[in-house]
C-alpha cells in the first residue's frame, strides 16, 4: 500500500541544512531563495523547482544530485539497471589504450548501424535496452576506430559516447555523464568534426544548467557557436546552431533573464523556419516543434506558469515525434499546471509523460517533483494517483 513519502527533496534540503548548522533564514540568505519559498519547500507544501534545487545545492556546496536524491538507487535496483552502470564506466575508461587485441570488430556498416539504432532507442525512451548494449558497442567501436584511424570511425565512436551520456544523464549519474561527454569531445577532435564539437558544447552546457552555473553554461554556448563557424555551411550546422540557441534560452530562463531568453528563442525560431522539422539530423529533434516546447520550458523557468500552461496546451506534437522529447514536454507542462492549481490536468500530463516514455519518466526529476507537489493535495485527485506514486517508488 502506498504511504506518504518522508524523503522528498524538501526533507533532504532540511537534513543537509541541519547538518551544516544553518537556520532557514541563513540558508535563504546564502542561496538567494525567498524565506517563505524555502520553508514551504522543506515542509513539502510546494515542490522544489529546478532553480531552487540548484541554488540550494550551490549554497550548501553539494551536488544537485545530493539534493534530488539521484540516482534513485532502490528503483534502479528493482529495475535491474544498477548493474549496467559499471560496464559503461569500464568501457569509457579504455578510450586511449589503442586496439584491444582480444576484440575482433565487425565491419563498419554493422557498427554504424548499431550506433544509429541506439540513438533511435534513446529517442524512443528505451533506456534499459540501450544501457544493456552500449558498453559492449563502445568497446568494439573503440578498437575499430583505433585500427582504422578514419574520421568516420571516430565519428561513430563519438556517437556511442553520446549514447552513454544519454543513459547516464537520464538515470541520474552526473559524474558518469560528464566522463562520457569528455570522451565525445576527444573523439570529435580525432574526427576533426566541428559539428560534433558544437554538439558537445551544447550537451556540456546542459550539465551546467542542472548545477545552476548559468554563466559557465552560456560561455559554452558561445564557444559552441564559434566552433560551428568552422563547419561547412549546411543544414547540419544550422540544426546544431539552432539547438545551441534553445539551450541558451533555457539557461537564460533559469537565470531569470527574460530578454536574453527571448533573443535566443527568436534566433532559434528563425533557424527552424529555414530547416523545417529536422528531427533526424543528429537526432536533436530540432525544428519548429522543438522551439515551441522550449518556449514552454523557458516560461516555466521564468516562473510564468500561467503563460507556460496556456502555451503548452496549444503545442501540437507530431505523431512521429521522439517519445523521449514528448515525455519531457508533458513533464514540463505538468509542472506548470501544478503551479497554476490545475491539478487534474497536471496529473493527466504526468500520465502522458509515463505513457510516452515510461523508463525515462520514472527517473525524471521534474516528474518526481511534480508528483510530490500534487501529493500535498492528493484528496482532490483520482485513486490512480497513488498507484502512480507506487510506480515511481515514492
Count the strands?
0
User: At the fourth CATH level, what is the homologous superfamily of one domain?
Assistant: lambda repressor-like DNA-binding domains
Pairing-aware structural class of the strands and helices? mainly alpha
Mean of all residue-level pLDDT scores: 94
Fill in the keyword field for this structure.
disordered N terminus, 22 helices, 434 Repressor (Amino-terminal Domain), mainly alpha
Structure description:
The chain is 73% helix and 0% strand. Helix 1 crosses helix 3 (35-43), helix 12 runs parallel beside helix 14 (235-254) and helix 17 (305-313) crosses helix 18. The model is unreliable at 1-5 (pLDDT under 50). Among the domains are: 1-69, lambda repressor-like DNA-binding domains (434 Repressor (Amino-terminal Domain)), CATH 1.10.260.40; 327-394, no CATH class. The chain is mainly α and 394 residues long. It is globular and about 60 Å long. It is built from 22 helices and no strands.
